């Protein structure tokens, strides 16, 4: 069976953007591939090294949402990056063959340096995180990595690093392919892409009344100021969520009635809420059940990390022999 590798930084409870753009895809992939999904807690240190107080609690909270969304530890390996030290060993060896210029040209590195002003990113780990990312993938000899289009350059860099390592030491690593994931535009309450950093997110496990309040106050078509003003669903963030959560019948109704002011924005948002909760509520309930049994979550991660270590060690035995390390 072909192998898929992917991970997430431990940011705590997840929002609807994570659910629809990442977790939905992971849940489908676990039925067709051998999947390794990991908590990228070392990656969190590349930018959040100054305060690590919430990494453990965020890890458990995030994995509860993974399990709530339908990831099955019997079908995929769920583990914590820092519990598999072979990642760090391979990262060191790959860093020896990775030219500095390759890292400096990574688009997301340049963008982050320009946009993130509240953190000191002048550290080696932040510059070198694509090498750690390459190690995360190559150590399991992953065939595919599910990513959005903006992450494709990272996978190409991983392929280049694998190619260069193989040139020096022999054919150890296959070159992984980007598996372009469906990327629905999940907008936040302010109309921008949903993100915790924008404080516009709706969390999977927000209480129903909180979800309603967030949806109720969402921005809509700015041209629709009064109830009798006709609207344009094509520019309305609420309608974009209807396309994700609502039935085709409701989508068609909103598309017509909004344009002729047959319904108000609150009516539209209420329909969205009712449809969205049909999907969100069961996932939230399952996630909360895992929160109440956190020892079970720890057991799942410990067992998954053990399986990951065994697989990673098999690769590292080949790597050490190829590089001629040890006695």
Descriptive report:
This protein has 327 residues and is mainly α. It has two domains: 3-186 and 294-323, Rossmann fold (3-Layer(aba) Sandwich); 205-287, Tyrosyl-Transfer RNA Synthetase (Orthogonal Bundle). The chain has 13 helices and five strands. The strands form two sheets. A three-stranded parallel sheet has the order 1-2-3. Strands 4-5 form a two-stranded parallel sheet.
SSE blueprint and pairings:
Blueprint: E1 3-8, H1 16-29, E2 34-39, H2 41-48, H3 55-69, E3 76-80, H4 86-97, H5 100-104, H6 107-115, H7 124-138, E4 144-147, H8 152-169, E5 177-180, H9 208-216, H10 237-245, H11 248-259, H12 265-291, H13 294-323
Helix pairs in contact: 2-7, 3-12, 4-7, 4-13, 7-8, 9-12, 10-12
């Amino acid at each position: 069976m072909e192998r898929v590798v992917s991970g997430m930084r431990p940011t705590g409870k997840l929002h609807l953007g994570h659910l629809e753009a990442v977790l939905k895809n992971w849940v489908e992939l676990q039925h067709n591939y051998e999947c390794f999904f990991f908590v990228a807690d070392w990656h969190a240190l590349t930018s959040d090294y100054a305060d690590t107080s919430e990494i453990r609690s965020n890890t458990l909270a995030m994995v509860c949402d993974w399990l709530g969304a339908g990831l099955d530890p019997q079908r995929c390996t769920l583990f914590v990056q820092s519990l598999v030290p072979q990642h760090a060993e391979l990262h060191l060896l790959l860093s020896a063959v990775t030219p500095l210029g390759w890292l400096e040209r990574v688009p997301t590195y340049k963008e982050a340096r320009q946009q993130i002003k509240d953190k000191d990113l002048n550290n080696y780990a932040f510059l070198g995180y694509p090498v750690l990312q390459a190690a995360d993938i190559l150590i399991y000899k992953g065939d595919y990595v599910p990513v959005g289009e903006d992450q494709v350059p990272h996978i190409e860099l991983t392929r280049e690093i694998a190619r260069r390592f193989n040139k020096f030491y022999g054919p150890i690593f296959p070159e992984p392919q980007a598996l372009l994931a469906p990327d629905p535009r999940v907008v936040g309450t302010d109309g921008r892409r949903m993100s915790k950093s924008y404080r516009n997110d709706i969390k999977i496990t927000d209480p129903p009344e909180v979800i309603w309040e967030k949806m109720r106050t969402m921005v809509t078509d700015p041209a629709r100021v009064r109830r009798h003003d006709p609207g344009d669903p094509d520019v309305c963030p609420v309608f974009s969520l209807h396309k994700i959560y609502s039935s085709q019948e409701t989508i068609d109704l909103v598309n017509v009635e909004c344009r002729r002011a047959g319904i108000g924005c609150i009516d539209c948002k209420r329909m969205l809420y009712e449809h969205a909760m049909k999907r969100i509520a069961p996932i939230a309930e399952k996630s909360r059940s895992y929160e109440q049994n956190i020892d079970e979550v720890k057991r799942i991660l410990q067992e998954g990390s053990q399986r990951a270590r065994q697989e990673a060690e098999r690769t590292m035995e080949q790597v050490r022999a190829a590089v001629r390390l040890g006695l």
